[in-house]
Amino acid sequence: MTRAPRPGDRIEALASLPAPFDRLAFVDLETTGTRPTRDRITEVAIIPVDNGVVGEPLQTLVDPGVPIPPTITRLTGISDAMVEGAPAFARLVEAIAERLDGRWLVAHNARFDAGFLRNAFREAGQALTLRELCTVKLSRQLDSGERRHNLDSLVTRHGLPVGDRHRAMGDCQALPALLARFVERDGADTVAEALARQVPRASTPPHLDPATLDAVPGVPGVYRFYGEEGALLYVGKSVNLRSRVRSHFADDHRSDREMRIAQQTHHVDWIETAGELGALLTEAWLVKRDQPIFNRRLRPSRALLTWYWNDETDRPPVLRSIDGIAPGELHRAHGLFRSRFKARERLAGIAREHDLCPQFLGLESGRGRACFAHQIGACRGLCAGAEPEIAHRLRLKQALAPMAFEAWPYPGAVAIRESRNEREEQHLFRHWRYLGTARSTDELDELLAGGDVYPLDIDMYRLAVDAIRGGAKVEPVE
Questions:
Q1: Residue 199's pLDDT is what?
Q2: Omega within 30 of 0 (cis) for the link into 300
Q3: The CATH number of 12-196 is which of 3.30.420.10, 2.40.37.20, 3.40.50.300, 2.120.10.30?
Protein backbone atom coordinates (compact mmCIF):
# COMPACT_ATOMS: atom_id res chain seq x y z
CA MET A 1 0.00 0.00 0.00
CA THR A 2 1.52 3.33 -1.07
CA ARG A 3 -1.40 5.62 -0.28
CA ALA A 4 -1.51 7.72 2.86
CA PRO A 5 -3.64 6.32 5.68
CA ARG A 6 -7.23 7.46 5.46
CA PRO A 7 -9.55 8.67 8.24
CA GLY A 8 -11.09 5.69 9.97
CA ASP A 9 -8.33 3.22 9.04
CA ARG A 10 -7.35 1.10 12.04
CA ILE A 11 -3.70 0.17 12.58
CA GLU A 12 -3.93 -2.81 14.94
CA ALA A 13 -0.32 -2.69 16.15
CA LEU A 14 -0.62 0.95 17.19
CA ALA A 15 -3.91 0.21 18.94
CA SER A 16 -1.95 -2.05 21.32
CA LEU A 17 0.38 0.72 22.54
CA PRO A 18 -0.36 1.64 26.17
CA ALA A 19 -0.95 5.13 27.52
CA PRO A 20 0.53 7.68 27.28
CA PHE A 21 1.56 6.60 23.77
CA ASP A 22 -1.98 5.94 22.58
CA ARG A 23 -2.44 9.39 21.00
CA LEU A 24 0.08 10.20 18.27
CA ALA A 25 0.54 12.77 15.51
CA PHE A 26 2.95 11.67 12.78
CA VAL A 27 4.56 14.74 11.23
CA ASP A 28 6.81 15.58 8.32
CA LEU A 29 7.79 19.01 7.00
CA GLU A 30 9.55 20.29 3.92
CA THR A 31 11.49 23.52 4.39
CA THR A 32 13.67 26.07 2.61
CA GLY A 33 16.72 24.96 4.62
CA THR A 34 17.91 23.38 7.84
CA ARG A 35 17.88 26.34 10.27
CA PRO A 36 14.59 26.57 12.18
CA THR A 37 15.19 30.17 13.27
CA ARG A 38 15.93 31.46 9.76
CA ASP A 39 14.47 29.09 7.18
CA ARG A 40 10.77 28.56 6.46
CA ILE A 41 8.27 25.72 6.06
CA THR A 42 7.11 24.92 2.51
CA GLU A 43 4.92 21.83 3.13
CA VAL A 44 3.21 20.19 6.10
CA ALA A 45 1.83 16.66 6.53
CA ILE A 46 0.26 15.40 9.75
CA ILE A 47 -1.44 12.06 10.36
CA PRO A 48 -3.19 11.88 13.76
CA VAL A 49 -3.71 8.39 15.19
CA ASP A 50 -5.69 7.81 18.40
CA ASN A 51 -5.83 4.32 19.85
CA GLY A 52 -4.77 2.98 16.46
CA VAL A 53 -7.51 4.80 14.51
CA VAL A 54 -6.41 7.32 11.90
CA GLY A 55 -7.95 10.76 12.19
CA GLU A 56 -8.25 13.51 9.59
CA PRO A 57 -4.80 13.98 7.99
CA LEU A 58 -3.48 17.38 6.98
CA GLN A 59 -1.45 17.86 3.82
CA THR A 60 -0.74 21.29 2.36
CA LEU A 61 1.89 23.36 0.65
CA VAL A 62 2.85 26.53 2.50
CA ASP A 63 3.89 29.88 1.07
CA PRO A 64 7.18 30.54 2.91
CA GLY A 65 7.27 34.20 1.96
CA VAL A 66 10.87 33.81 0.74
CA PRO A 67 12.43 32.27 -2.39
CA ILE A 68 13.08 28.52 -2.28
CA PRO A 69 16.77 27.77 -2.96
CA PRO A 70 17.40 25.78 -6.17
CA THR A 71 19.13 23.01 -4.21
CA ILE A 72 15.97 22.52 -2.14
CA THR A 73 13.80 22.50 -5.25
CA ARG A 74 16.00 19.79 -6.78
CA LEU A 75 15.70 17.71 -3.60
CA THR A 76 11.98 18.08 -2.87
CA GLY A 77 10.55 19.10 -6.23
CA ILE A 78 8.83 22.06 -4.52
CA SER A 79 9.34 25.28 -6.49
CA ASP A 80 8.38 28.92 -6.02
CA ALA A 81 5.66 28.46 -8.63
CA MET A 82 4.14 25.56 -6.69
CA VAL A 83 3.78 27.52 -3.43
CA GLU A 84 2.46 30.65 -5.12
CA GLY A 85 -1.10 31.04 -3.85
CA ALA A 86 -0.62 28.47 -1.07
CA PRO A 87 -1.64 29.61 2.43
CA ALA A 88 0.89 31.35 4.65
CA PHE A 89 1.72 29.42 7.82
CA ALA A 90 -0.28 31.83 10.00
CA ARG A 91 -3.46 30.68 8.25
CA LEU A 92 -2.70 27.04 9.13
CA VAL A 93 -2.00 27.51 12.83
CA GLU A 94 -5.46 26.47 14.00
CA ALA A 95 -5.59 23.33 11.83
CA ILE A 96 -2.09 22.26 12.87
CA ALA A 97 -2.67 22.96 16.57
CA GLU A 98 -5.89 20.92 16.46
CA ARG A 99 -4.03 17.86 15.18
CA LEU A 100 -1.14 18.22 17.64
CA ASP A 101 -3.20 19.01 20.74
CA GLY A 102 -2.93 16.26 23.33
CA ARG A 103 -0.83 14.05 21.05
CA TRP A 104 2.83 13.12 20.85
CA LEU A 105 4.59 14.58 17.83
CA VAL A 106 6.27 11.61 16.08
CA ALA A 107 8.82 12.48 13.40
CA HIS A 108 12.03 11.22 11.86
CA ASN A 109 14.54 13.54 13.55
CA ALA A 110 11.82 15.08 15.69
CA ARG A 111 14.00 17.95 16.92
CA PHE A 112 14.11 19.31 13.34
CA ASP A 113 10.33 19.26 12.79
CA ALA A 114 9.51 20.45 16.32
CA GLY A 115 12.01 23.30 16.05
CA PHE A 116 10.49 24.56 12.80
CA LEU A 117 6.96 24.31 14.18
CA ARG A 118 7.81 26.15 17.39
CA ASN A 119 9.47 29.00 15.51
CA ALA A 120 6.68 29.22 12.94
CA PHE A 121 4.05 29.36 15.70
CA ARG A 122 6.09 32.01 17.52
CA GLU A 123 6.28 34.16 14.40
CA ALA A 124 2.51 33.79 14.02
CA GLY A 125 2.11 35.11 17.57
CA GLN A 126 1.13 31.76 19.05
CA ALA A 127 2.69 29.56 21.70
CA LEU A 128 3.18 25.88 20.96
CA THR A 129 3.99 23.21 23.53
CA LEU A 130 5.09 19.89 22.06
CA ARG A 131 5.85 16.41 23.35
CA GLU A 132 8.24 14.77 20.91
CA LEU A 133 9.10 11.21 19.93
CA CYS A 134 11.86 10.56 17.41
CA THR A 135 11.81 7.52 15.11
CA VAL A 136 15.56 7.89 14.48
CA LYS A 137 16.23 7.44 18.20
CA LEU A 138 13.73 4.61 18.38
CA SER A 139 15.40 2.77 15.51
CA ARG A 140 18.82 3.17 17.12
CA GLN A 141 17.49 1.69 20.35
CA LEU A 142 15.62 -1.23 18.84
CA ASP A 143 18.03 -1.94 15.96
CA SER A 144 21.29 -1.06 17.67
CA GLY A 145 23.17 -3.53 15.47
CA GLU A 146 22.30 -1.64 12.30
CA ARG A 147 24.57 1.10 10.98
CA ARG A 148 22.06 3.23 9.06
CA HIS A 149 18.86 4.73 10.42
CA ASN A 150 17.95 7.28 7.75
CA LEU A 151 14.47 6.99 6.30
CA ASP A 152 15.59 5.47 2.99
CA SER A 153 17.37 2.68 4.89
CA LEU A 154 14.35 2.03 7.12
CA VAL A 155 11.95 1.97 4.17
CA THR A 156 14.11 -0.74 2.53
CA ARG A 157 14.86 -2.67 5.72
CA HIS A 158 11.25 -2.85 6.94
CA GLY A 159 9.43 -2.81 3.60
CA LEU A 160 7.55 0.37 4.48
CA PRO A 161 4.91 1.95 2.25
CA VAL A 162 6.09 5.31 0.97
CA GLY A 163 4.87 7.79 -1.60
CA ASP A 164 6.93 10.61 -3.08
CA ARG A 165 10.23 10.71 -1.17
CA HIS A 166 11.21 14.12 0.16
CA ARG A 167 7.60 15.28 -0.03
CA ALA A 168 5.84 15.74 3.28
CA MET A 169 3.04 13.21 3.02
CA GLY A 170 5.18 10.70 1.16
CA ASP A 171 7.63 10.57 4.05
CA CYS A 172 4.99 11.02 6.75
CA GLN A 173 2.97 7.96 5.77
CA ALA A 174 6.03 5.74 6.33
CA LEU A 175 6.20 6.67 10.02
CA PRO A 176 3.04 4.98 11.42
CA ALA A 177 3.97 1.91 9.36
CA LEU A 178 7.49 1.93 10.88
CA LEU A 179 6.17 2.16 14.41
CA ALA A 180 3.70 -0.63 13.68
CA ARG A 181 6.53 -2.83 12.36
CA PHE A 182 8.47 -2.37 15.58
CA VAL A 183 5.40 -3.25 17.67
CA GLU A 184 4.68 -6.35 15.59
CA ARG A 185 8.28 -7.53 15.86
CA ASP A 186 9.22 -6.57 19.44
CA GLY A 187 5.90 -6.20 21.22
CA ALA A 188 4.00 -3.15 22.45
CA ASP A 189 5.60 -3.15 25.92
CA THR A 190 9.14 -3.16 24.53
CA VAL A 191 8.37 -0.32 22.13
CA ALA A 192 6.61 1.67 24.86
CA GLU A 193 9.65 1.28 27.14
CA ALA A 194 11.93 2.51 24.35
CA LEU A 195 9.69 5.49 23.73
CA ALA A 196 9.58 6.28 27.44
CA ARG A 197 13.36 6.63 27.48
CA GLN A 198 13.01 9.60 25.12
CA VAL A 199 10.61 11.48 27.35
CA PRO A 200 12.04 14.15 29.66
CA ARG A 201 10.93 13.40 33.16
CA ALA A 202 7.87 15.48 34.00
CA SER A 203 7.75 16.92 37.49
CA THR A 204 4.74 18.12 39.40
CA PRO A 205 5.77 20.82 41.88
CA PRO A 206 6.20 19.24 45.32
CA HIS A 207 3.45 21.39 46.85
CA LEU A 208 0.90 21.01 44.02
CA ASP A 209 -1.82 18.37 43.85
CA PRO A 210 -1.32 16.45 40.54
CA ALA A 211 -5.11 16.29 40.15
CA THR A 212 -5.10 20.06 39.65
CA LEU A 213 -3.08 19.73 36.44
CA ASP A 214 -5.43 17.03 35.15
CA ALA A 215 -8.36 19.42 35.59
CA VAL A 216 -6.90 22.27 33.53
CA PRO A 217 -8.91 22.50 30.28
CA GLY A 218 -7.38 22.78 26.82
CA VAL A 219 -9.09 26.09 26.01
CA PRO A 220 -8.05 29.75 25.73
CA GLY A 221 -7.71 31.67 28.96
CA VAL A 222 -5.52 32.93 31.78
CA TYR A 223 -3.83 30.88 34.51
CA ARG A 224 -2.48 31.94 37.91
CA PHE A 225 0.15 30.31 40.11
CA TYR A 226 -0.03 30.90 43.85
CA GLY A 227 2.62 30.31 46.47
CA GLU A 228 2.44 29.59 50.15
CA GLU A 229 -0.35 31.43 51.98
CA GLY A 230 -1.91 32.52 48.69
CA ALA A 231 0.81 34.86 47.41
CA LEU A 232 0.30 35.41 43.67
CA LEU A 233 3.45 34.25 41.90
CA TYR A 234 2.66 34.45 38.21
CA VAL A 235 -0.11 35.20 35.70
CA GLY A 236 0.07 33.85 32.15
CA LYS A 237 -2.18 33.33 29.16
CA SER A 238 -2.52 30.76 26.40
CA VAL A 239 -4.83 29.56 23.66
CA ASN A 240 -4.44 26.14 25.29
CA LEU A 241 -4.33 26.35 29.07
CA ARG A 242 -3.59 22.67 29.63
CA SER A 243 -0.51 22.57 27.40
CA ARG A 244 0.87 25.87 28.65
CA VAL A 245 0.45 25.14 32.35
CA ARG A 246 2.06 21.72 32.01
CA SER A 247 5.00 23.21 30.12
CA HIS A 248 5.97 25.17 33.23
CA PHE A 249 6.58 21.96 35.14
CA ALA A 250 9.07 20.08 32.96
CA ASP A 251 12.50 19.18 34.30
CA ASP A 252 14.22 20.94 31.42
CA HIS A 253 13.36 24.45 32.63
CA ARG A 254 14.36 27.20 30.25
CA SER A 255 15.59 29.46 33.05
CA ASP A 256 16.25 29.71 36.76
CA ARG A 257 13.12 31.84 37.00
CA GLU A 258 10.98 29.03 35.55
CA MET A 259 12.44 26.62 38.09
CA ARG A 260 11.73 28.96 41.01
CA ILE A 261 8.14 29.42 39.87
CA ALA A 262 7.65 25.63 39.71
CA GLN A 263 9.23 25.01 43.10
CA GLN A 264 7.16 27.68 44.85
CA THR A 265 3.75 26.89 43.31
CA HIS A 266 1.18 25.55 45.80
CA HIS A 267 -2.03 26.22 43.89
CA VAL A 268 -3.19 26.87 40.32
CA ASP A 269 -6.43 28.38 39.08
CA TRP A 270 -7.57 29.64 35.69
CA ILE A 271 -10.12 31.81 33.90
CA GLU A 272 -11.53 30.58 30.61
CA THR A 273 -12.05 33.12 27.82
CA ALA A 274 -13.81 33.08 24.48
CA GLY A 275 -10.58 33.48 22.57
CA GLU A 276 -7.07 34.83 22.38
CA LEU A 277 -7.94 38.53 22.67
CA GLY A 278 -9.89 37.89 25.87
CA ALA A 279 -6.90 35.99 27.27
CA LEU A 280 -4.51 38.83 26.37
CA LEU A 281 -6.75 41.50 27.90
CA THR A 282 -7.42 39.52 31.06
CA GLU A 283 -3.73 38.75 31.54
CA ALA A 284 -2.74 42.40 31.14
CA TRP A 285 -5.48 43.61 33.49
CA LEU A 286 -4.66 41.06 36.21
CA VAL A 287 -0.91 41.71 36.06
CA LYS A 288 -1.43 45.46 36.37
CA ARG A 289 -3.96 45.08 39.16
CA ASP A 290 -2.33 42.35 41.25
CA GLN A 291 1.38 42.73 40.33
CA PRO A 292 2.45 39.06 40.63
CA ILE A 293 5.94 38.44 41.98
CA PHE A 294 7.43 36.89 38.82
CA ASN A 295 5.71 39.04 36.16
CA ARG A 296 7.77 41.88 34.78
CA ARG A 297 6.16 42.50 31.41
CA LEU A 298 2.77 44.26 31.51
CA ARG A 299 3.46 45.87 34.92
CA PRO A 300 1.82 49.31 35.25
CA SER A 301 4.08 52.16 34.19
CA ARG A 302 3.99 55.41 36.13
CA ALA A 303 3.85 58.85 34.53
CA LEU A 304 4.33 57.81 30.92
CA LEU A 305 5.26 60.84 28.83
CA THR A 306 4.50 61.69 25.22
CA TRP A 307 5.40 64.42 22.76
CA TYR A 308 2.19 66.41 22.21
CA TRP A 309 2.15 68.50 19.05
CA ASN A 310 -0.62 70.45 17.39
CA ASP A 311 0.65 70.79 13.85
CA GLU A 312 -1.92 73.51 13.12
CA THR A 313 0.01 75.99 15.27
CA ASP A 314 3.53 77.39 15.08
CA ARG A 315 4.43 75.97 18.50
CA PRO A 316 6.93 73.13 18.90
CA PRO A 317 6.10 69.73 20.46
CA VAL A 318 5.78 69.75 24.24
CA LEU A 319 6.36 66.87 26.63
CA ARG A 320 3.20 65.92 28.53
CA SER A 321 1.82 63.08 30.61
CA ILE A 322 -0.25 60.78 28.42
CA ASP A 323 -2.99 60.68 31.06
CA GLY A 324 -3.38 64.46 30.85
CA ILE A 325 -4.34 64.41 27.18
CA ALA A 326 -8.04 64.46 26.32
CA PRO A 327 -9.28 61.40 24.39
CA GLY A 328 -10.09 63.49 21.33
CA GLU A 329 -6.54 64.85 21.28
CA LEU A 330 -4.71 61.51 21.35
CA HIS A 331 -3.89 61.68 17.65
CA ARG A 332 -1.60 64.59 18.56
CA ALA A 333 0.42 62.37 20.93
CA HIS A 334 3.65 60.84 19.62
CA GLY A 335 5.42 57.98 21.37
CA LEU A 336 5.49 56.89 25.01
CA PHE A 337 8.50 57.38 27.26
CA ARG A 338 9.33 56.49 30.86
CA SER A 339 11.55 59.51 31.44
CA ARG A 340 12.21 63.02 30.13
CA PHE A 341 15.73 61.94 29.20
CA LYS A 342 14.48 59.12 26.96
CA ALA A 343 11.88 61.40 25.36
CA ARG A 344 14.41 64.13 24.55
CA GLU A 345 16.91 61.54 23.31
CA ARG A 346 14.33 60.18 20.85
CA LEU A 347 13.36 63.63 19.60
CA ALA A 348 17.02 64.56 19.16
CA GLY A 349 17.51 61.43 17.09
CA ILE A 350 14.56 62.37 14.88
CA ALA A 351 16.03 65.86 14.44
CA ARG A 352 19.34 64.40 13.27
CA GLU A 353 17.68 61.91 10.91
CA HIS A 354 15.53 64.57 9.23
CA ASP A 355 17.73 67.69 9.40
CA LEU A 356 15.24 69.42 11.71
CA CYS A 357 16.09 72.46 13.78
CA PRO A 358 16.91 71.53 17.40
CA GLN A 359 16.33 75.18 18.40
CA PHE A 360 12.72 75.05 17.23
CA LEU A 361 12.24 71.70 18.98
CA GLY A 362 13.47 73.15 22.29
CA LEU A 363 16.52 70.89 22.35
CA GLU A 364 19.00 73.75 22.02
CA SER A 365 18.91 77.31 23.36
CA GLY A 366 19.99 80.45 21.50
CA ARG A 367 17.02 81.75 19.51
CA GLY A 368 17.88 84.66 17.27
CA ARG A 369 20.95 83.08 15.81
CA ALA A 370 21.65 80.00 13.71
CA CYS A 371 21.81 76.75 15.67
CA PHE A 372 24.96 74.66 15.84
CA ALA A 373 23.35 71.94 13.71
CA HIS A 374 22.87 74.45 10.87
CA GLN A 375 26.50 75.47 11.11
CA ILE A 376 27.60 71.88 10.47
CA GLY A 377 25.00 71.24 7.78
CA ALA A 378 22.63 69.15 9.94
CA CYS A 379 19.74 71.68 9.94
CA ARG A 380 18.20 73.15 6.81
CA GLY A 381 18.15 76.61 8.35
CA LEU A 382 14.77 77.43 9.88
CA CYS A 383 16.69 79.22 12.62
CA ALA A 384 18.66 81.26 10.06
CA GLY A 385 15.72 82.12 7.82
CA ALA A 386 16.93 79.71 5.14
CA GLU A 387 13.93 77.36 5.32
CA PRO A 388 10.25 78.46 5.39
CA GLU A 389 8.50 77.59 8.63
CA ILE A 390 5.69 75.78 6.78
CA ALA A 391 8.24 73.52 5.05
CA HIS A 392 9.91 72.70 8.37
CA ARG A 393 6.54 71.99 10.00
CA LEU A 394 5.58 69.63 7.17
CA ARG A 395 8.85 67.72 7.49
CA LEU A 396 8.40 67.50 11.26
CA LYS A 397 4.90 66.11 10.77
CA GLN A 398 6.23 63.43 8.43
CA ALA A 399 9.06 62.58 10.84
CA LEU A 400 6.71 62.19 13.82
CA ALA A 401 4.00 60.29 11.90
CA PRO A 402 5.35 56.76 12.68
CA MET A 403 5.11 57.56 16.40
CA ALA A 404 1.59 59.04 16.30
CA PHE A 405 -1.27 57.48 18.22
CA GLU A 406 -4.23 56.22 16.22
CA ALA A 407 -7.21 58.55 16.28
CA TRP A 408 -10.25 56.90 17.89
CA PRO A 409 -12.39 56.01 14.84
CA TYR A 410 -15.80 55.77 16.56
CA PRO A 411 -18.22 58.31 18.10
CA GLY A 412 -18.37 56.45 21.42
CA ALA A 413 -17.67 53.10 23.06
CA VAL A 414 -17.43 49.90 21.01
CA ALA A 415 -17.52 46.20 21.77
CA ILE A 416 -15.01 43.84 20.18
CA ARG A 417 -16.90 40.55 20.03
CA GLU A 418 -15.29 37.16 20.52
CA SER A 419 -16.98 33.78 20.75
CA ARG A 420 -16.15 30.11 21.26
CA ASN A 421 -18.82 27.41 21.35
CA GLU A 422 -21.53 28.82 23.64
CA ARG A 423 -19.26 31.42 25.26
CA GLU A 424 -19.45 34.99 23.97
CA GLU A 425 -17.57 38.01 25.29
CA GLN A 426 -17.70 41.70 24.47
CA HIS A 427 -14.47 43.60 25.15
CA LEU A 428 -15.41 47.24 25.67
CA PHE A 429 -13.25 50.22 24.69
CA ARG A 430 -13.89 53.94 24.67
CA HIS A 431 -11.22 56.28 23.27
CA TRP A 432 -8.72 53.38 23.49
CA ARG A 433 -9.42 52.96 27.23
CA TYR A 434 -10.37 49.40 28.21
CA LEU A 435 -13.64 49.41 30.16
CA GLY A 436 -13.81 45.67 30.83
CA THR A 437 -15.29 42.51 29.34
CA ALA A 438 -19.03 41.85 29.40
CA ARG A 439 -20.62 38.41 29.22
CA SER A 440 -24.23 39.56 29.58
CA THR A 441 -26.42 42.58 28.85
CA ASP A 442 -26.39 43.59 32.52
CA GLU A 443 -22.59 43.53 32.62
CA LEU A 444 -22.48 45.56 29.40
CA ASP A 445 -24.77 48.26 30.84
CA GLU A 446 -22.82 48.34 34.10
CA LEU A 447 -19.47 48.81 32.35
CA LEU A 448 -20.82 51.56 30.09
CA ALA A 449 -22.33 53.40 33.04
CA GLY A 450 -19.04 53.29 34.92
CA GLY A 451 -17.36 55.84 32.65
CA ASP A 452 -13.70 55.89 31.68
CA VAL A 453 -12.50 54.74 35.07
CA TYR A 454 -9.22 53.33 33.76
CA PRO A 455 -6.37 55.54 32.53
CA LEU A 456 -5.06 55.07 29.02
CA ASP A 457 -2.81 52.01 29.09
CA ILE A 458 -0.29 51.38 26.33
CA ASP A 459 -0.70 47.58 26.42
CA MET A 460 -4.50 47.78 26.18
CA TYR A 461 -4.19 50.39 23.45
CA ARG A 462 -1.94 48.13 21.37
CA LEU A 463 -4.22 45.12 21.83
CA ALA A 464 -7.24 47.14 20.69
CA VAL A 465 -5.40 48.60 17.68
CA ASP A 466 -4.16 45.16 16.60
CA ALA A 467 -7.63 43.63 16.97
CA ILE A 468 -9.37 46.37 15.00
CA ARG A 469 -6.70 46.41 12.28
CA GLY A 470 -6.87 42.61 12.15
CA GLY A 471 -10.54 42.61 11.22
CA ALA A 472 -12.11 41.77 14.59
CA LYS A 473 -15.89 42.09 14.85
CA VAL A 474 -16.46 45.60 16.23
CA GLU A 475 -19.87 47.02 17.14
CA PRO A 476 -20.74 50.49 18.52
CA VAL A 477 -22.57 50.18 21.84
CA GLU A 478 -23.39 53.80 22.60
A1: 77
A2: no
A3: 3.30.420.10
